[in-house]
């Protein structure tokens, strides 16, 4: 956790300890500093930046269908007080909303594993962020293609502080088996069936993986092996969040 430090003056730590520093940086507490054995005081840069940035913090959560994104997001919410926004859930809610002008379109896209135009998804995400009044968000299952990424950059990138992309790496067979088991268990999802799965997997390879690669090329991706059991996966996830300065 305390890998990225910058040296600060001893006086600052003392100010922090006696509360005087809150006048300068009200969000910082003594937990953001560490006294090193050589008597120098270090500030945890990422933790400090995380707490001092006024924009909402966003982590994109990506991976194949059934990789375990939603399952891990629930655990992250519990441990790190993030708000979970699943783009798929928001679209399903909008599809079910009486009078929605997008209901039929969303239904067709979901059944066929296609990606809904970004104007619809991005507006749902922005409304959810604004409505929540919260400051840490997991955006699960978005951006999924170039249209999503372009639309997000146009509408949202200046309004949030994107932290990193959490990528759940999982083989196709495991992904498909998890979704089909979820369907047989009564998920009620119109796309947890073999026909939709084939299309979802194709969309993932053709449209979503190139976006993950783009983020990778920009050094933004934290990859997690999503094939072990959920608790084991979470221990890796926890490590990533802590080393990124979240407490
Ligand atoms: N590590 C795991 N090991 C075994 N089963 C898992 C694991 N993680 C999740 N599952 C199960 O697999 C199914 C899919 O998980 P989850 O809904 O979290 O995936 P997802 O990536 O959000 O899926 P989708 O993209 O389809 O929304 C669920 O039934 C869940 O209980
Ligand atoms: O940004 C998004 C997210 C989802 N969709 C559509 O919804 C389904 C289901 O998504 P899950 O993340 O698996 O819940 C997906 O196959 C797409 O059809 C979307 O269009 N855009």
TrEMBL record:
PROSITE patterns the UniProt entry points to: ADENYLATE_KINASE
Which stretches of sequence are listed as region NMPbind? 86-116
Query: Does the keyword section mention Nucleus?
Result: yes
Question: Which residues are recorded as binding a ribonucleoside 5'-phosphate?
Answer: 92, 114-116, 141-144, 189, 200
GO terms assigned for molecular function: ATP binding; nucleoside monophosphate kinase activity
Instruction: Look up the record and report any one GO term of the cellular component aspect.
Output: cytoplasm
Instruction: Please give the biological process terms from Gene Ontology that the record holds.
Output: 'de novo' pyrimidine nucleobase biosynthetic process; pyrimidine nucleotide biosynthetic process
Q: Which cofactor does it need?
A: Mg(2+)
Q: Which reaction does it catalyse?
A: dCMP + ATP = dCDP + ADP; CMP + ATP = CDP + ADP; UMP + ATP = UDP + ADP
- The residues that the entry says bind CMP are 148
Which SUPFAM superfamilies does this UniProt record tie to the protein? P-loop containing nucleoside triphosphate hydrolases (SSF52540)
The EC designation for this entry is: 2.7.4.14
Q: Provide the alphabetized UniProt keywords.
A: ATP-binding, Cytoplasm, Kinase, Nucleotide-binding, Nucleus, Phosphoprotein, Pyrimidine biosynthesis, Transferase
Record text on cofactor binding:
Binds 1 Mg(2+) ion per monomer.
Mind telling me which InterPro entries this protein's record contains? Adenylat/UMP-CMP_kin, Adenylat_kinase_CS, P-loop_NTPase, UMP_CMP_kinase
Localization terms from the record? Cytoplasm; Nucleus
Q: Where does ATP bind?
A: 66-71, 182, 228
The main enzyme category here is transferase
Family annotation (PANTHER family): NUCLEOTIDE KINASE
Family recorded in the similarity comment: Belongs to the adenylate kinase family. UMP-CMP kinase subfamily.
Q: What is known of its domains?
A: Consists of three domains, a large central CORE domain and two small peripheral domains, NMPbind and LID, which undergo movements during catalysis. The LID domain closes over the site of phosphoryl transfer upon ATP binding. Assembling and dissambling the active center during each catalytic cycle provides an effective means to prevent ATP hydrolysis.
Kindly state the subunit structure of this protein.
Monomer.
Its biological purpose: Catalyzes the phosphorylation of pyrimidine nucleoside monophosphates at the expense of ATP. Plays an important role in de novo pyrimidine nucleotide biosynthesis. Has preference for UMP and CMP as phosphate acceptors.
The name on file for this protein is UMP-CMP kinase
Q: What is the protein's species of origin?
A: Drosophila lebanonensis
């Amino acid at each position: 956790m305390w890998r990225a430090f910058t040296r600060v003056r001893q006086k600052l730590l003392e100010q922090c300890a006696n509360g005087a520093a809150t006048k300068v940086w009200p969000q910082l507490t003594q937990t953001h500093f560490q006294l090193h054995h050589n008597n120098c005081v270090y500030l945890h840069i990422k933790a400090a930046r995380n707490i001092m940035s006024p924009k909402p913090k966003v982590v994109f959560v990506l991976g194949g269908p059934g990789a375990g994104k939603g399952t891990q997001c629930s655990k992250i919410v519990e441990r790190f007080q993030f708000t979970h926004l699943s783009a798929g859930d928001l679209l399903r809610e909008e599809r079910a909303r009486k009078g929605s002008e997008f209901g039929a379109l969303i239904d067709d896209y979901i059944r066929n594993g296609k990606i809904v135009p970004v104007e619809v998804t991005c507006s749902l995400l922005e409304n959810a962020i604004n409505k929540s009044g919260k400051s840490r968000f997991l955006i699960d299952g978005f951006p999924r293609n170039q249209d999503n990424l372009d639309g997000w950059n146009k509408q949202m990138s200046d309004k949030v502080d994107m932290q990193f992309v959490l990528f759940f790496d999982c083989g196709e067979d495991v992904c498909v088996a998890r979704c089909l088991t979820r369907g047989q268990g009564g998920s009620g999802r119109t796309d947890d069936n073999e026909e939709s799965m084939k299309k979802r997997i194709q969309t993932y390879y053709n449209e979503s993986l190139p976006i993950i690669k783009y983020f990778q090329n920009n050094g933004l991706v934290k990859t997690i092996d999503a094939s072990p059991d959920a608790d084991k996966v979470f221990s890796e996830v926890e490590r990533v969040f802590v080393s990124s300065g979240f407490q």
